[in-house]
């Protein structure tokens, strides 16, 4: 399936000079949504996964779908202050400052094999912070997968050799 035809470019969002890759056209088409999930599953090549970590907020779309297909648990990673139970946290750099991601302290068990999923790999700061959270709790990051990878931003460089898969690369 031509997933690229379902991605809409939005100029100057969220700030001037940024070309935002909007995935909502793909999400609203049931066939494209299903096929994208199937393609993300195929990229796992039968790997054994215990938990799928989805990153706030667009990572929450495909991560639970993947978890259900993998017979794995879904773990949300949220921005600071959004999770109700005890958390661990990891700060990361943005273009314009820093932010903090959190995960529940009981989300990952030692030895869990973990898939990290988000919609876009850009600079890699978010995904790198999530991988650190997983490892703090004793999990093993098996793969990081994304709908879109913006290769020109070199986010893969921050992922320290973790296997990376994406449906689309720009």
TrEMBL record:
Residues 31-148 form the Phosphoribosyltransferase domain. Gene3D superfamilies: 3.40.50.2020. InterPro entries: Ade_phspho_trans, PRTase-like, PRTase_dom, UPRTase/APRTase. It catalyses: AMP + diphosphate = 5-phospho-alpha-D-ribose 1-diphosphate + adenine. SUPFAM superfamilies: PRTase-like. One of its GO terms (biological process) is purine ribonucleoside salvage. The keyword Glycosyltransferase applies. Pfam families: Pribosyltran (PF00156). Pathway: Purine metabolism; AMP biosynthesis via salvage pathway; AMP from adenine: step 1/1. GO terms for molecular function: adenine binding; adenine phosphoribosyltransferase activity; AMP binding. GO terms for cellular component: cytoplasm. Its EC number is 2.4.2.7. It is an enzyme of class 2 (transferase). Its main location: cytoplasm. It comes from the Bacteria. Keywords: Cytoplasm, Glycosyltransferase, Purine salvage, Transferase. It is found in: Cytoplasm. Homodimer. Belongs to the purine/pyrimidine phosphoribosyltransferase family. PANTHER family: ADENINE PHOSPHORIBOSYLTRANSFERASE. Catalyzes a salvage reaction resulting in the formation of AMP, that is energically less costly than de novo synthesis. This is Adenine phosphoribosyltransferase. It comes from Flagellimonas flava. The gene is apt.
